[in-house]
Amino acid sequence: MSSRERILGRVRRALADTAGDDVPYERAVPRDYLREHGDRSASQTVDLLAENLADYRAVVHRTDGEGLAGLIAALLDKRGSASVLVPPGLDPSWLARTAVTRVADRAESTPHELDEVDSVVTACAVAIAETGTIVLDGSHDQGRRRITLVPDHHICVVRVPSQVVSSVPQGLERLDPARPLTWISGPSATSDIELDRVEGVHGPRTLEVILVSGD
Amino acid sequence: MSGTYLGMPAFPEAAREAVANTTLRGNLRHATHTIRAKRAKAVNEVSDWAGLREAGKRIKDHTLRHLDRYLIQLEESVTAAGGVVHWAADAAEANEIVTRLVKTTGESEVVKVKSMATQEIGLNEALRDAGISAYETDLAELIVQLGGDRPSHILVPAIHRNRGEIRDIFRSEMGEWGRPAPDGLTDTPAELAEAARLHLREKFLRAKVGISGANFMVAETGTLVVVESEGNGRMCLTLPETLISVVGIEKIVPTWRDLEVFLQTLPRSSTAERMNPYTSTWTGTTDGDGPGTFHLVLLDNGRTDTLADEVGRQALRCIRCSACLNVCPVYERAGGHAYGSVYPGPIGAILSPQLRGTGSEIDASLPYASSLCGACYEVCPVAIDIPEVLVHLRERVVEGGEVTRQGNKVVLRPAKGHAAERAAMRAARWALTHPGALRTGQRAASRTRRFHPRSLPGPGRAWSGTRELPPVPAEPFRDWWQRTRGGKGGAK
């Protein structure tokens, strides 16, 4: 007997006492929790996102379509970055004002090569206000998962209010589970020393989120 | 479970040593009190906590009740998404599968995301015996591994270490494993985190094989979820060419939507955050992004035996948040090592004796490692009634009875060492069913009460050593009731 058959057999024998229980999944779980917490306008939801991102030490900036390229250039300049990773589908106008060396997101790049790059600029798939979370789904304007992991500085652009939802349930509804997802809530952190939160371990130690309005 | 814990002394002996260690008690007190207050605040932020808790409980119960169906569905969806599914009935089989998979890659080192399942099966030791170096990359796991230590907490395995001890371990041990600690390393948490970043970076960047567990597996989509803070999880899940995930069969949820419950309750219960810094989800393999080969090892190792127990099976709802540890007065004082298992604290006291059986001294003692105060049940985000299971397991230890071990029904004999307790219970049963004898005995006790000792002699000494004996009243209750008709008309 294979282990698969052995385990499934054990499960069925273990559940012999529940044989009469055929409540279907749809009725087995009460969903009387909230779809979102509180009643906010679109702009209040964006404000909450900004507040919660900042609470977990992300640096939040706000601008409009006109100011975006200038802001990104200024942030890279201030950081002293010499190179920036660019996902293949990133809107080229976002980097129009900076002369920093572009490094393409390529399958052939080794992790060591990515480690030499100073910054990365991406879009996102959705942002969740209640938890201060941005989610990347590997679309062309976000690139492979590793490009937002190895460089120490991540600039993420969120289009507001269209990409912002209030809550985790609403966020999940917008996401495609078939894609590899990365949920990011503030920069890398740890609570492993005396259960106190310290920012900055393996992921990018600086996370800058730009909320771009006007879409 | 892991051989590391074989021959552990029973909980009371291990706890006695731990309680005498004042550094340990100080570290635990500081850490658990810090997190307790923060958790309460994070939970109070959401007004529908009770609804989320109930939904989480019901999702898990429903899944467990149809576990065979959901396991098959998960296998189909993971396979359709490009993953390879393996089944392991016990620790030895899981270790054998993982070792073979690593050897097939030709690599001799792996990087690991923190995983309770691989701790449970002793995977690192099995890999070491096969000539494969496994590097723990979670900061607390790194502290434990470098210190040649054992984990003492589910979420923060090095909770028993303070910052000064961590600095000393980094200074003396990092050089043995790779990049040494920076010169002049101090004990500030930020510097310690930086030292870990530098030490592990070279290992991440060259790793070809990653090993993980998972917090959730979605049957409908074949998606695995890892919830973490540091980014070491993302490193292990995305940089290597091969990913091997070892996951207990109880980690399934039926649908993608079910995550909306647990991604709200888990972070708030564990690290007391609205959301943990990083959550990764992946479904099989993705062309050009992350590992090209993905293996999922589904682990039983005592879970189906636990499932067979109608009372005890609720322990399988556990999402490993560790809120019950942080709030437990016994854990706070005894620490995690005394529980003799990778699962310490209240949840460990009901999980270990079920996964491993109550055959060993430590496992038979674990159901007693509690004052039954119920704080663990209060904070549990999936409403596991830990006190109920503890009492149930105590009964099993004392009375014996039918249980399932490795899929077979066996009858346990009553444990040794509870003879006096059983004799006392038999005597009580006889007295309570013989009213005449009870009355005579009670009257005799009342009349002689001035001569009663303050502590019990002989084998009762240990019990009364830490407790007051209840005073015997001057008159038995039943005599008083008959005389006064329950105090009618002011009678005393």
Describe the structure.
Chain A: Residues 103-212 form the LUD domain. The complex is a heterodimer of chains A (215) and B (492). Chain A has 215 residues and is α/β, with parallel strands linked by helices. Chain A contains 6 helices and 12 strands. Chain A has helices at 3-14, 25-28, 42-55, 68-79, 111-115, 168-174, and strands at 59-64, 83-86, 101-104, 119-122, 126-128, 133-136, 153-159, 164-165, 181-184, 189-193, 196-199, 206-213. The termini of chain A are far apart. Chain B has 492 residues and is α/β, with parallel strands linked by helices. Chain B has a 6-stranded parallel β-sheet with strand order 1-10-7-4-2-3, with helices on both faces. In chain B, a hairpin with a 2-residue loop joins strand 11 (401-405) and strand 12 (408-412). The longest helix of chain B is centred in the first third of the chain and has 23 residues, at 22-44. Chains A and B meet through helix 1, helix 5, helix 6, strand 9 and strand 10 of A and helix 2, helix 3, helix 4, helix 8 and helix 10 of B. Strand 9 (181-184) of chain A pairs antiparallel with strand 9 of chain B, so a sheet runs across the interface.
List the topology elements.
The complex is a heterodimer of chains A (215) and B (492).
Chain A (H helix, E strand, L loop, with lengths): L2 H12 L10 H4 L13 H14 L3 E6 L3 H12 L3 E4 L14 E4 L6 H5 L3 E4 L3 E3 L4 E4 L16 E7 L4 E2 L2 H7 L6 E4 L4 E5 L2 E4 L6 E8 L2
Parallel strand pairs in A: 1-12, 2-3, 2-4, 4-7, 5-8, 7-12
Antiparallel strand pairs in A: 5-6, 6-9, 10-11
Chain B lengths: L10 H9 L2 H23 L4 H17 L1 H14 L3 E5 L2 H15 L3 E4 L3 H6 L1 H7 L3 E4 L2 H8 L16 H15 L11 H18 L2 E4 L3 E3 L4 E6 L3 H7 L3 E7 L3 E2 L5 H12 L7 E6 L9 E7 L3 H5 L15 H5 L1 H6 L10 H12 L4 H5 L9 H5 L6 H14 L1 E5 L2 E5 L6 H14 L2 H13 L13 H4 L12 H8 L8
Parallel strand pairs in B: 1-10, 2-3, 2-4, 4-7, 5-8, 7-10
Antiparallel strand pairs in B: 5-6, 6-9, 11-12
Pfam families (chain A): LUD_dom (PF02589)
Protein name (chain A): LUD domain-containing protein
InterPro entries (chain A): FTHF_cligase-like_sf, LUD_dom, NagB/RpiA_transferase-like
